[in-house]
Amino acid sequence: MKVRLLIAAILATTAWAPQSVQIASAIYCYPGDPPAVYQACVNYNSGIGQQVNNQNQLNNIQSQINNTISQINAIDVMIASLRNQIAAQKALIAQTQAAIDELSRQIRFGEASLIRQKAHVSVREQLLNQRLRYVDSHGSLNYVQLVLTSNSINQLMNRMVGAQQVAASDRRLLVGMEEEHAQIAQANTDLDGQRGQVSALLKQQKEAEADLEKNLATEAAALAFERQLAAQLADQYNKVQAERAAIDAQVAQLAQQYNAAAIRAGGGNGVFEWPEPNCGPSCMSQRFGCSSFYLEVYEPSCPYPHKIHTGIDIAGPYGTQIVAADTGVAYLYPGSVGYGNLLVIIHGNGYSTYYGHLSGYAPGLSTGQVVPRGTTVAFEGSTGWSTGPHLHFEIRVNGVYKDPCIWLGC
Questions:
Q1: Residue 112 to residues 115, 119, 234, 343: CA-CA distances in angstroms?
Q2: Residue 274, Cβ neighbours under 10 Å: how many?
Q3: CB neighbourhood size of 89 (10 A)
Q4: What domain range is 369 assigned to?
Q5: Same domain as 213, residue 87
Q6: 313-348: per-residue pLDDT in tens?
Q7: Which of 204, 221, 268, 277 has its CA 20 to 30 A from that of 55?
Q8: Quick check: is 305 in a domain?
C-alpha cells in the first residue's frame, strides 16, 4: 500500500506540472488490483493516453475549421473517440465496482469468522484461567505424595499417567492459545489490507466517474454543435440547389438562344476533347456517380446520403490551363455558391459543358463569345464548395448530366 500511495503521489505531482498540451487524465493501474480491474484500467489508459483534452479539441473544431462539412466530419471523429473512451471508462467502473463488491463480501465473511474465532479464544482463555486458579490454590504436583499414597503399582502408574496427561493438556492449551492469538492478529492485518484496497478502489472509482462525467458533457456539447452545423448545412444545401436549378433553367434558355450560332461555328457534333491537356486522365480525382458529399445533387437510386457527383473532378496544379472541350458559345457565372467561378459552354444539338471551381477566366473571355474547340478558356482553381484545386467538368445532354467518360474514354 505504501508503494501504491508513493506512486500515486508522484503521478499527482506530474499531472500538476504545466504542459503545452493537456492530456486527458489517466489513472494509475496498480498491479495488485484484481486482474479484471487491472486490465480494465490498462485498457482505459491506453484509450485516453493518446487523446488531447476533449473540450479543447471541441473548441478547436468550433473556432478553426470554417468548412461546415469538414467541421461535421471532425466532430464525428471526435465523438467516435469520445465514445471509445466512455466505453473504456464504463468498463473500468464496472470492473472496479465488481472488485469492491467482492472485497466487501470477503471483509464481511472475514469479520464474521473473526468474531467466532474471538469467541472461541475467549472460552479457551476462561478454561486457562480456571486451570491457573486451580494450580494456584492447590500448588504444583507432588510426585513423592503420589508414590506414598498409592496402594499399588497399578494405582501409582495410573496416577503418574494421569498427571502427565494433565501437564500435556496444559502445554497444548498454552500453545493453542498462542497460535489462536497469532491467527487473530493475522486476520486483523488481512482485513486492514482489504479495507485499504477497497479505499484505493473507491478513490479510483471516483476519478473514473469524474472523467466519465466530463466526457459525457463534452459528447453532449459536441452533439449539440453537430446539430447546429447540420441546420447550417441544410440551409447551405438549399441555397446551392436553388442556385443550381436557376443556372440550369437559364442554360436551357441559352441553349435555344445560342444553338444555331454554336452549330454554325462547328460545335454540337458529340465529340469532346480532354479539358486539361496538361493534366491527363491520371489527374482524375473523382468519377461520375454516387457520392457521400452532402451538397451534391439528390439521387434516390444512390445509397445514403442519396447524392450523385454529376461530373468528373480533375485535380491538376493550381492555375492549370483549361480548354473548351468542343466549339460553342461561352456563358460566365462568376462567384456562384457551389460551383464557384463557373463557365458553361453551349455546343448545339442539346450538348453543353460545365467547368466549375475556376480560379479565373481566360483574358478577354466574355459571355456570348464563340470559343473554338481546344481554346484556353479558364484556369483551374478551388472556388465555391471545393476541398482543393481541381476542375469539376460536366457534360449535359438536353440539360441532363451524363458521365463524361462516355465521350472522353476515361
A1: 5, 11, 67, 88
A2: 19
A3: 26
A4: 271-408
A5: yes
A6: 999 999 999 999 999 999 999 988 889 999 999 999
A7: 204
A8: yes
Q: How far lies 240's CA from each of 237, 246, 290, 305, 338, in Å?
A: 5, 10, 18, 16, 5
201 and 336 together in one domain: no
Number of domains composing the chain: 2
Q: How far is CA 125 from CA 116, 132, 172, 217, 248, in A?
A: 14, 10, 13, 61, 105
Say whether both 219 and 341 belong to one domain. Answer: no
User: Hey, CA dihedral for 288, 291, 294, 298, is it positive or negative?
Assistant: positive
Residue 248 within any structural domain of the chain: no
Q: How far is CA 388 from the centre of its chain?
A: 28
Cβ burial 361-390 (10 Å sphere, 16+ → b, else e): bbeebeeebbbebeeebbbbbbbbbbeebb
User: Can you give the CATH number for the domain in which 303 is found?
Assistant: 2.70.70.10
Residue 258 lies in a domain: no
Helices (H), 266-336: none
Q: How far apart are CA 68 and CA 337, in angstroms?
A: 14
Across 97-105, average pLDDT: 84
Same domain membership, residue 207 and residue 60: yes
Residue 173, pLDDT score: 66
- Is residue 240 situated within a structural domain? no
Residue 305 is given by DSSP the state: T
Lookup result for grid cell 508503494: 3
Residue 201 grid cell? 478502489
Give the strand order in the sheet containing 289-291: 289-291, 307-309, 297-298
CATH number at residue 83: 1.10.287.1490
The CA distance from 392 to 341, in Å, is 11
Bigger pLDDT: 396 or 152? 396
Residue 358 and residue 275 in contact, taking contact as beta carbons nearer than 8 Å: no
CA distances to 31, 56, 80, 159, 403 from 51, rounded to whole Å, are 24, 11, 12, 85, 43
